[in-house]
């Protein structure tokens, strides 16, 4: 047998080459802008499949990319080997220890539902279709973030296939350096096949969305700025300004409007949550108001994000404070009546996100208080297309208030350059990551990710 046949015989999943049936379906994920064309895809069903794929890549000098859902692809895997983990869906919850074991292809929706059966919740993100492992490796700013912190800080144990094709169980005791690097260093140090995460004792929250029409959108953002500065850590919130086209595919209530959507997730007494939200409701009539006491199992309705794959480009900045001037700059660029049409979102950070974890991780810029991002929808194509003018303008406009930092999970596609990745870390942490990269991946096999280049020896 040749090497390809040997690999196919070793793998319980499927090995797919360009031109094979299923190639396009396997390589394309949620993000449709510029889907990659890898030389080889291993549709893995187990850690042993991942080991075989990494060993093959090492023997043939191929870089390795990993994709579960393809929600925020950081790099093009064209010419490399893509390990698809979407079939690795093992999931179990231990209610006694308040932990869950999640394999590499598990999505947050399944974890939320399984944990809810035990009155528990994970530190999941706003969209239930995102892969739990990849999200957590990048830090994880979720619906309960200000109350419970970064998802990466709640990892207890990691199973990872490193560049030598060894399957390692990594804990703070077995390998503190690698454990630190994996939690925040994303895919630079190997292919994570599963992890044990802590769950939190949350079964209900006071949450939902407040949707305001075009004439209140700007005032909603200004009010959110003042309101968010005084809320307790139990309140995690954000606001998005969204211009909707006047087309039949859009729900009639939003059609042709520039809507402000305030997202609420209060992990405290519902009566106090209602009192805290009252100043937002006082803005005026809502197109929709879904904020109420809800089972955490229904928390995906808070952001109510679309579940259909799409092509998009995103940029973001971090701020230490949300000033009136920065809010006005956002409105001038992307608010109602602005020349450029884009979705803009302001996420309130701080709270437990700023606290030092019991076991340190590589997650950077914990002191940031806000994240502002812009997103533009593109036409699906094999190439991302010409740069969108709003993104360059956004970076320039926000420069007076931005910290210069970035958050790894919000760096997508052509925006996930090495320079931007470096900006996601404190300088001393980036140096340590580069040094550890030289130890665990000296040939830089795992460079088709949020790339950290190995330190020179």
Automatic annotation (TrEMBL):
Required co-factors: FAD
Looking up InterPro entries in the UniProt record yields: BBE, FAD-bd_PCMH, FAD-bd_PCMH-like_sf, FAD-bd_PCMH_sub1, FAD-bd_PCMH_sub2, FAD-linked_Oxidoreductase, Oxid_FAD_bind_N, Oxy_OxRdtase_FAD_BS
PROSITE patterns named in the record: FAD_PCMH, OX2_COVAL_FAD
Where exactly are the transmembrane stretches of this chain?
A: none
List the keywords (alphabetical): FAD, Flavoprotein, Oxidoreductase
Question: Which domain of life, per UniProt?
Answer: Bacteria
**Pfam family name, one:** FAD_binding_4
- In this chain the FAD-binding PCMH-type domain maps to 33-202
Name the family: Belongs to the oxygen-dependent FAD-linked oxidoreductase family.
**PANTHER family recorded:** BINDING OXIDOREDUCTASE, PUTATIVE (AFU_ORTHOLOGUE AFUA_1G17690)-RELATED (PTHR42973), FAD-BINDING PCMH-TYPE DOMAIN-CONTAINING PROTEIN (PTHR42973:SF39)
Tell me the protein's name. Answer: FAD-binding oxidoreductase
Query: What is this organism's lineage?
Result: Bacteria, Bacillati, Actinomycetota, Actinomycetes, Streptosporangiales
């Amino acid at each position: 047998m040749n090497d390809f046949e040997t690999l196919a015989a070793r793998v319980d999943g499927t090995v797919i080459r360009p031109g094979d049936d299923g190639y396009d379906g396997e390589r394309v994920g949620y993000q449709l802008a510029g889907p990659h064309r890898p030389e080889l895809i291993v549709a893995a069903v187990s850690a042993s499949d991942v080991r075989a794929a990494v060993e093959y890549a090492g023997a043939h000098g191929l870089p390795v990319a990993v994709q579960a859902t393809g929600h925020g692809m950081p790099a093009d895997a064209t010419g490399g080997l893509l390990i698809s983990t979407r079939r690795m869906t093992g999931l179990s919850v231990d209610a006694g220890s308040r932990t869950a074991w999640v394999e590499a292809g598990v999505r947050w929706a399944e974890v939320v539902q399984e944990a809810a059966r035990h009155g528990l919740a994970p530190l999941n993100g706003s969209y239930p279709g995102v892969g739990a492992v990849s999200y957590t490796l990048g830090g994880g700013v979720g619906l309960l973030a200000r109350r419970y912190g970064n998802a990466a800080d709640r990892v207890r144990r990691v199973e990872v296939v490193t560049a030598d094709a060894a399957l390692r169980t990594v804990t703070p005791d077995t390998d503190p350096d690698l454990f630190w690097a994996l939690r925040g260093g994303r895919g630079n140090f190997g292919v994570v096949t599963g992890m044990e995460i802590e769950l939190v004792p949350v079964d209900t929250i006071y949450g939902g969305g407040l949707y305001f029409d075009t004439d209140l959108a700007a005032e909603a953002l200004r009010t959110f700025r003042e309101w968010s500065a005084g809320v307790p850590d139990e309140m995690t919130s954000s606001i998005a300004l969204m211009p909707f086209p006047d087309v039949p595919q859009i729900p009639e209530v939003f059609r042709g409007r520039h809507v402000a959507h305030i997202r609420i997730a209060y992990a405290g007494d519902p009566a106090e949550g209602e009192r805290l939200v009252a100043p937002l409701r006082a803005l005026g009539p809502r197109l929709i108001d879904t904020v109420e006491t809800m089972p955490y199992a229904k928390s995906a309705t808070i952001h109510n994000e679309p579940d259909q794959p799409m092509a998009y480009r995103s940029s973001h900045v971090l701020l230490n404070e949300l000033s009136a001037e920065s809010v006005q700059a956002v409105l001038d660029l992307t608010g109602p009546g602005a020349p450029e049409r884009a979705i803009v979102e302001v996420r309130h950070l701080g709270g437990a996100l700023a606290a030092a974890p019991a076991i340190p991780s590589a997650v950077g810029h914990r002191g940031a208080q806000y994240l502002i991002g812009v997103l533009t929808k593109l036409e699906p194509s094999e190439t991302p297309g010409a740069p969108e003018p709003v993104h360059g303008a956004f970076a320039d406009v926000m420069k007076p208030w931005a910290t210069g930092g970035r958050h790894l999970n919000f760096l997508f596609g052509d925006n996930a350059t090495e320079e931007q990745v470096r900006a996601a870390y404190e300088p001393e942490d980036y140096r340590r990551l580069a040094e550890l990269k030289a130890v665990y991946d000296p040939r830089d096999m795992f460079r088709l990710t949020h790339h950290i280049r190995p330190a020179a020896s």
